[in-house]
Amino acid sequence: MKVCILTTAHSPFDERIFHKEAKSLAEAGYEVVIVAPFLRSEQKEGIKIQAVAPLSSRTDRIWRLKALYRAALQEKADIYHFHDPDLVPVGLLLSRRHRKPVIYDVHEYYGDSLLTRYWIPKPMRKFVARTVDHLEKWSARSFAGIITVNSHMAELFRRKNPEGEILHNYPLKRQFEFPRPETIKPPAILYLGGITRERGLEVILRAMPLVREKHPEAVCELVGPVDTADLGPEFSDLTPWLKRGNVRLRGKVPYEQVPEILAQSSIALVPLLPTLNYQKAIPVKLLEYMAAGLPVIGSRFGYIEEIVEKNQCGLLTEPGSPESLSHDICSLLDDPKKALSYGQNGWDAFHREYTWEKEQNKLLALYERILAKKDR
Q1: CA-to-CA distance for 87 and 65, rounded, in angstroms?
Q2: Strands (E) located in 167-294
Q3: What is the pLDDT of residue 374?
Q4: Which of 24, 150, 159, 324 could crosslink 360 through cysteines, CB 3.0-4.6 Å?
Q5: What's residue 220's pLDDT?
């Protein structure tokens, strides 16, 4: 059986798309191809990457739809699986015109997230958000199945289409098979993933100089793409902020390097702001920190608060407060025994409850159900 996975917004080597879902399907015996904007077509770990022209801007995602659609048809797959809301029209064509089973993999609450996107003119944000939300729900009944990331999201789509699975984006257990940290020295503080104002960039930049008043040797590494477009005017030049806080920008790194970076860190941050989207989301970085045995400092709301409190794996800071964040960082630096205890609790909880290896069985079961209906 051949599976064709489609994405416009992600790299074909995206963690969830390639390393979790595509690999799980390939290991189960499916022939897997990923169609995505990329520099070149290639074969990696038994998975075919079929490239269309790379994107030069966000609007290119719309202009690439025809190329993605044509490339998808050429693959003559038995089942199609797409990941982004702008691909809904492509999914509808494959489902309705070509009678192909199509799965829509919903990563986040796109209607909510579009309300805070600075690149959409403010007067248009509500209209765009509502349009995307209505399109998603209206089209859901045309697809063979819907994949969501939590029970609340699943219920929203189940009203339109009862077939689907909740696939939590939990980390791969095999990627984190390294010894837990035995000390939190040197004080290396980590934020992993793309960062913007609403993900806590301003809070970190303001908090780190306060931390260094007590712990001048402290360093904070931001590992992932940094988007400064929505920051306040006082951050027009980041250089003095980076210097005062000893903040280092590592930029985006290959997925395979993430475990090594985690292993070299001592405290991990999830300082998200309580936007509508983040109030309902489980941040993958939180679970990766736990998998690495790192003590966590996360914002006090939503799933972050629930997971940290349930598993006693770190401290909860007031969202948007650099004073609260700096206080909690210093608290862990001052009490290494407590920090290591939090890290151990998180590590135990990850292995007990939060591994992708447990989720992949639900993905394979969904495919089996859908393909069984196709063959009737």
Answers
A1: 7
A2: 188-192, 219-223, 247-249, 267-270
A3: 75
A4: 24
A5: 97
SS3 (DSSP) at 67: helix
What per-residue confidence (pLDDT) applies to 78? Answer: 97
Sorted by where each starts, the structural domains of the chain and their CATH numbers stand as 2-170+356-374 (3.40.50.2000), 173-353 (3.40.50.2000)
* Dihedral sign, Cα of residue 361, residue 79, residue 174, residue 169: negative
CA distances from 53 to 56, 64, 73 (A): 9, 8, 17
Q: How far is 161 from 289, CA to CA, in rounded Å? A: 34
CA-based nearest residue to 160, from 172, 145, 175, 171? 145
Question: Please, are residues 267 and 332 in contact by the beta-carbon 8 Å criterion?
Answer: yes
Contact 366, 164 (CB under 8 A): yes
Expressed in angstroms, the distance from the first to the final Cα of the chain is 16
The pLDDT value given to residue 289: 96
Q: How many CB atoms lie within 10 A of CB 166?
A: 16
| Position 270, amino acid | V
CB 115 within 8 Å of CB 276: yes
What's this model's pTM, rounded to 2 decimal places?
A: 0.84
d(CA 43, CA 371): 25
The closest alpha carbon to 283, from 342, 224, 362, 335, belongs to 224
Residues of the chain with pLDDT under 70: 181-185, 375-376
Query: What DSSP designation does 95 have?
Result: I
- Over residues 231-286, the pLDDT tens digits come to 999 999 999 999 999 999 999 998 888 888 998 899 999 999 999 889 988 899 99
State the amino acid at position 357 in one-letter form.
E
Omega before 12 cis (within 30°)?
no
Burial degree of 298 (CB within 10 A; 0-12, 13-18, 19+): buried
Query: Helices 284-291 and 336-353, interaxial angle, to 10°?
Result: 110
Angstrom distance (rounded) from CA 273 to CA 288: 19
Nearest-Å Rg of the Cα atoms of the chain is 21
At residue 183, the pLDDT reads 65
Q: 222 φ, ψ to 5°?
A: -100, 110
Joined together, the tokens standing for residue 33 give: 């191809």
Closest CA to 147 of 111, 115, 107, 193: 107
Q: Are the CB atoms for 371 and 79 separated by under 8 Å?
A: yes
